[in-house]
Fold this sequence. Notes:
The chain is an alpha/beta fold. Among the domains are: 106 residues, Glucose Oxidase, domain 1 (3-Layer(bba) Sandwich), CATH 3.50.30; 293 residues, TIM Barrel, CATH 3.20.20. The chain is built from 25 helices and 16 strands. It has an 8-stranded mixed sheet. It has an 8-stranded parallel sheet with strand order 15-14-13-12-11-10-9-16. Helix 1 packs antiparallel against helix 3, helix 1 packs across helix 7 and helix 5 packs antiparallel against helix 7. The chain is globular, with a radius of gyration of 25 Å.
Amino acid sequence: MSFTVHGQAVSRGVAIGRAVIVASSRIDVAHYFVKTEQVDVEIERLRGARDVVVEEIERVQLSLNAQGSNDAHPELAALLDVHLMLLQDEQLASGVKHWIVERHYNAEWALTSQLEVIARQFDEMEDPYLRERKADLEQVVERMLRVMRGMASPVAASASPGAEDSSNEVPLVLIAHDLSPADMLQFKQSVFAGFVTDVGGKTSHTAIVARSMDIPAVVGARSASHLIAQDDWVIIDGEAGVVVIDPSPVLLAEYGFKQRQGEVERERLSRLKNTPAVTLDGQKIELLANIEQPEDAVAALKAGAVGVGLFRTEFLFMGRNGKLPDEEEQYRAYRRAVEGMQGLPVTIRTVDVGADKPLDRGALRAGDDHLNPALGLRAIRWSLADPAMFLFQLRAILRAAAHGAVNLLVPMLAHAREIRQTLALVQRAREQLDARGMVYGPVRLGAMIEVPAAALTVPLFLRHFDFLSIGTNDLIQYTLAIDRADEAVSHLYDPVHPAVLQLLAGTIVQCRAQGKSVSVCGEMAGDVTLTRLLIGLGLRSFSMHPSQILAVKQQILRCDTGKLATWAQSVLAAEDPAALMAD
């Protein structure tokens, strides 16, 4: 009898096949004390395991480069870089050494003990995307433990010829507790048609890679790996977040038809890449990409983006054991992104970190711990609290602007004094570059509207900035006073709540009245169910994950802005806007 498991819908498409189960990612670890004369031996065992894993990841990177996959799948390449960075992290190495030297733990015990210490720091982070980077750390540690145990990669073992006979052409789907980026590469090169994991969310690395590779997947399916038996027939609906186990012939036929429809739809969408995003009544709509690494520019161009609407610079500041990137390192990264976009504009957001972001203890200042990090020293507040660090970034961005069109975007501004301080520092950065005789380029200055206070004082922002970008994720969270990462209240996260729509519409109207450009760069921009409403409210610039661009473009091509404007005003005036959204 068939049954269904629900998880997070993270990628489109349907996969149908027999299940290959990967054992739980947790490895039993022996706990014992070592004698003083054995301490050096344990440290060497640890170092050897780390070196083996580093070598494994570097081989994967070379394979990516050799196949040209590094450009095709920049998210995977970036995540492999994160794993290498974690392996070489001083906090991990010195912490493990401490447990061995001071407590005389064996290497495996010391490694898992330090994992618990660092994992707690990740758990305290409020940002769901960054909090889920704990999974990367866990996978790095697991790979080291596997080396010390002489075990192979779980996916490599499952995908080996001995695991399944791929010659019979029966499609296979992978069921796992979790998958590492390196495992994902092996998975892509193997016979698997889709995957399901017990853990993960919409911003987990597995979800990111699934979207970038266009792989049908469901994550966060809790106990799926225990409920599904080896060789069960499984249907994965990546768009609905549904996993059907042991489906009936009727369900198999139904989902088989849906699978074929999806393939036809993807082919149809791909033909829109070079089609201008213009509505039925001739209104041009700007479709931009959100990126997190310079290498993501490749995916943005491939999807037909006309620029980068949001380059999140946080990755450059993560996991560095107190050593933040200097001006030169940041300049090189920003320059790669600018040159990668081949003349199209790149909007670089200044760093959005704080006590809730993955800066290790060495990078935090006294007083950086807060009871509620979301309301604490984050984003521009963090940057203004450390002008020297902020000037490093501002100078790097200005220098990168000499290589192409650059917009400089500032997050979480709410006060006039913050605006004045920020503009003064931008000017100081220019003066410092002039004094050094260094080349830099012009930038358009923009501010993010993600705090209700900012949305209610848009005229102030328009006097000082060239453009605005609405960060709907935070704007919704702060307007509705809910933590979208908290499962207890996440159901209250409502993009079409009347208050949210009023703030959104008011910002758009005022920008257009002043002749200033405005975009939406939050999740609302890539949600095709909201495209018509946003256009009706007057939005003409969207920024989203590259994988969402073509689907949104398809909606745009079917829109008539005149008709939508009238309808959008009725939605805006409604007590229950969601009830009118299907009209």
